[in-house]
Structure formats: structure tokens, C-alpha cells
Amino acid sequence: MEPRSGCPINAAVEVLGDRWSLLVLRDVMFGDRRYFRALLTGSMEGIASNILADRLVRLVEAGILTRGTAARGQRARYSLTESGIQTLPIIYALGSWGLDWRPGSDELRIRQQLMRDEGPAFVEELMDELRVRHLDAPPKPYDGPGPFERLDAARAAAAEQEHVD
Q1: What is the pLDDT of residues 54-74, one digit of tens each?
Q2: C-alpha span between 98 and 88 (Å, rounded)
Q3: pLDDT in tens, 140-153
Q4: CB 116 within 8 A of CB 99
Q5: Contact 77, 65 (CB under 8 A)
Q6: At what angle do helices 19-30 and 8-16 cross, to 10 degrees?
Q7: How much of the chain exceeds pLDDT 70, in percent?
Q8: Could you tell me if 132 and 139 are in contact, meaning their C-beta atoms sit under 8 angstroms apart?
Q9: pTM (2 decimals)?
Q10: Nearest to residue 29, comparing CAs of 57, 63, 69, 65?
Q11: Can you give the pLDDT at residue 49?
Q12: Residue 92 to residue 124: CA distance in whole angstroms
């Protein structure tokens, strides 16, 4: 798909500029949802199946996701490409803006807050871990829990705190 102009912002917006594409990428990255059904049923925002199918096709055509081949009766698994992994800083920037300027629950905001508190090196760790999960890159050793384990622990602690309050 050729962009309407040579402007790099336009080219990016044509691929990522709708609400659902970014939310699908969020769910693939942070929810490790890699199959159509998991993306459909795991969507907090309630994406419709036809919209999800369309966005998955668009993201595959744009080279952001790959769709694994599935034999008859099997489910196709979606994986991030390096281009898709490189959208994490964009998603991080949008989340940081939302953290500052939009309301939300502590449980859902805590991951973004942790990423902000940990800084750019943490975002790089997340990208490295996505390469392991999606591109079969060799894992990097961590002293202690990995980045996704830390995000999950922070979210679980926030959920527990919300139930106590």
C-alpha cells in the first residue's frame, strides 16, 4: 500500500492511525494474545470480529505482523515483525500522554507508570523480550524477573490494592 504522500507522519498514520490497530498491537504485545479468538475475547474495548479481521489483514499487509500458516482446522498464530516491535515506543508515548491527561483505573494504569518510572532502558528490555517471543531471538539474561514479569507483578499488586480499598 503506497501512502498518499511522501510525509513520514502520513505514512505512519495510514497504517497505525486508527484506534483498533493500536489496541490490537497492545494486546499482542502486553497480553501475548497471538490468535484471533484470544484477541477477540480478550479485548477490554469489545472489538467486533469483522473489525478485528480487517485490522489483522491490514497489519499483516503493512509488515507489522506475520500470520503463521495453519492447516485445516488449526488456528493461525500472529507474530510481531521487527517493524511491529518498533511500534512499542509509539505505544509507550501514547500511554504516557494518556497517563498524564486521561482518567483510568489504577490497575490498568500501573503498567504504564512502571514503564515510565523504569525509563527508556526498560522499554528496550521489553523490545528484546518481544524479539524472543515473536522472532525466536535468543533470550537475554536478567538479574531477577524479566520485564514482562515485572509488569505482571505490578498489575497484580494494583489489582489487589483496588480490592482492598
Answers
A1: 999 999 999 999 999 877 777
A2: 15
A3: 998 899 999 999 99
A4: yes
A5: no
A6: 70
A7: 98
A8: yes
A9: 0.91
A10: 65
A11: 95
A12: 11
